[in-house]
Amino acid sequence: MPTHHSTRMLARRSFFSKLGVSLIGGAAAGAAVGGATVPLEAQSSEGRFESMRHGQDDWLDLPARHRYIVDAPNPDGFSIAIQFTTTYYNINVNDYGLKDSDLAVILVARHLSTLLGYSDAIWAKYGKPISDRNGVLDPKTKMPPTINIQRERLEPLIKRGLRLAVCQQASRGYAGSIAMAMGLKQDDVFEEMKANLLPNARLVPAGIVAVNRAQERGYSLASVEHA
User: Fold this and answer.
1) 169-200, pLDDT tens digit by residue?
2) What's the total number of domains in the chain?
3) Are the CB atoms for 179 and 185 separated by under 8 Å?
4) Which residues are bridge partners to 201 per DSSP?
5) What is the predicted pLDDT for the residue at 16?
6) Which range marks the domain in which residue 37 is found?
7) Which of 35, 104, 152, 205 has the smallest C-beta neighbourhood within 10 Å, fewest atoms?
8) Are residues 98 and 172 in the same domain?
9) Average confidence (pLDDT) over 48-76
10) What is the DSSP string of 88-114?
11) What CA dihedral angle connects 118, 119, 121 and 122, to 10 degrees?
12) pLDDT band, residue 227 (cuts 50/70/90)
């Protein structure tokens, strides 16, 4: 005949089994829910997570065998990211026998690196207020750049298929700083900037959102903040 203690244990076991919880090892593999420990498996019992799709992110669905996105929110990290993406292309072609077209590679220009997604024309005209905001100096003159100092390194990668995701939110912030410094209208500066993106560059609502959406569509992420 079961004892009062064993009856209580059976009741507890029945309760936890309804939650999908094993009494053995549950605490090590789960998350606390109302005092009980629910393993991660129970949290997805209704099926595998699938993200919501949005039409403005469909540009990420590039025909390729491998997908790679590099997030570089700071100028020094952006420089290293160019090196990383160059290596990524070279190794896949030389060691794996792939073609550049087999690779979907995106470099995110956001936060302080945002203006590295724009052409020399923007830097020639607004180099001083841009430099005041992001601290970028021409390594030769130690003065605010009059060109995009990463353009020459980006161009060969762009020809290989590299795409740039340029943060629109940060771009508007730069347009505001430029307008304030030079007595211009923010909207006018922003429209001028939009007309001078680098080839294969596109404005995205926010760089960090592009990083999230890319991962949801199968891109692996590398984040490079500093050299």
Assistant:
1) 999 999 999 999 999 999 999 999 999 999 99
2) 2
3) yes
4) 164
5) 41
6) 4-43
7) 35
8) yes
9) 95
10) HHHHHHHTT---GGGEEEEEEE-GGGG
11) 10
12) low
